[in-house]
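Hi support team,

I'm opening this ticket because the web form for multi-chain structure prediction keeps timing out on my end. I have pasted the exact lines I submitted so you can reproduce it. The total is 575 residues across two entries, so I didn't expect it to be a heavy job. Is there a limit I'm missing, or should I split the entries? Thanks in advance, R.K.
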Amino acid sequence: MSAALDVEQLTFGYPSASLGARRQVIVKALDHVSLSVQPGRVLGIVGESGSGKSTLLRTIVGLNRGFSGTIRFNGRPVDHGAGKAGLADFRAGVQMIFQDPGGSLNPFKTIRQTLAAALARAPLGIRGEGKPGENKLGALLDRVGMNASALDRRPSEFSGGQLQRLAIARALASNPSVILCDEPTSALDVSVQAQILDLFAELRAEGRAFIFVTHNLGVLGHIADDLVVMYRGKVIETGPARQVIASPREAYTSALIAASPRLKHRGALLNQARERRESASGGKPA
Amino acid sequence: MAMTISTAHRSRSALSVTEILAVAVVLLFVVVGVAGPNLVDFNPAATDTSARLKPPMTMLADGSVAWFGTDAVGRNVAKQVIYGARISLIVGFTSALLAAAFGVVIGVWAGWAGGRTEQFLMRIVDVQLAFPSILIAVFLAAFIEPSLLSVIVILAVTRWAIVARVSRAITTRSLTRSYVEAAIISGDSAWRVVRDCILPNLWIPLLILMSAELSLIILAEASLGFLGLGTPIDVPSWGRIISSGRNYLANAWWIATLPGVVIVLVVVSIGVAGEILRRRLGRGVITAI
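Hello R.K., no limit was hit. The queue was backed up. Here is the completed structure from your submission:
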């Protein structure tokens, strides 16, 4: 099966530009990163802050210019300088979900305006002729578990979980085959996290590919098929998710797993917390 | 944020007596500036030496009362102040608008472009802000033929830089928001992103900033008039009236003092009205100015 999205030898550095500086200092954020994701599969990318996971997604969608390496969508190389026509397929086919649900929808526009604009940008085959009608917008909301009463409200009127659903609805307007998620659940509380992850699972069952960036191995253990571990801009370990978590090859990966409270230490941490609380309520010094 | 809004709710909605007075003074200033010259007739060339240097509240020969007294050539000071209000109003608002328009363009451009373009534009702003604005105004006025238009342009030139700095800061901050990135990723044109995602963030901070700028511009216009660098001699301006009364301070204090009091009242009232705007709309957006 051919990859929905694959990245080969992607290298990118943040230049530190300042007027009068003789030499530009390049901070290497991605160092020859190669990975690929198949339709209907979830590729998890994990690593500590600053490991380059978010930079990777931002580079793929074209927010970072001046990288080297190749990005292929459905086997065809993507040229971010290609202009509207050249990029139309890629822009419709690859959508991004952001971490901060409160900031991912334009606060000055109603949900109707935001979704209608997203539909209007979708290729003709998906949006159909004419203006997007009420039922098209309603169908998008229905798809993410919201209803049409949301249409004439603004983002400030929704909770974090609802906003993330609406952001997903916007992403779905162009019927993407690849969805890039940058910590999409880390700003949400646990019960809402689970609902959003369920929604992702449904979308994946439709054959969409996901690249899922998070520092939360617990979340990835649930949904990822494959795992990529990044450290300082490099891919240091890849493999099927279960295998990487059960028997990591790299010491760094083991440390990452050991540091994840959701997997091994959750019970221990809970007990510690309980003990602390009991001793505090008992009036004894901690 | 939600908490500060709810706890501050009562004080945000209620106006104090001072604030009501301030709003009234601002409204009066606008009404007098717009309609005043149509209500009283004043000819700056018409002098009446028999009525020179009359103190405030004097009944004049034609039966009218000179509320603010008369000047050294017998002209009614109150009428001059009413005419001057129009000049202050026109100069204040058009200069503020011009400065805002130019500053927004430069600031958003710098914030959007980033890198060296941003550095270059912002250093210009820094250099300009390093000079006292009245110095720049005097310097420019020395080169340009005095006219209402030239005063407007000069004062706009002295005030755009702070607008550019604020616009750039807001643009830079907006660009990090996910919805702006989403718009960029989806291929929206630069203009569309600026229009839909960045400019809406600017209006309220800008409105608050311009209320402060307005009073500064009115003061600067009076200063230029006082220095004889403002509007032409036949256009009565508040600064020029004060200047003309300077030599008579010992025996006719009202010529310089009463227009001065009017300037202070208007400037302070605009400041207080701006503070009301800031409190009602600001929500902490503009703490940096």
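A quick check on our side: The mean pLDDT of chain A is 84. Let us know if the file doesn't open in your viewer.
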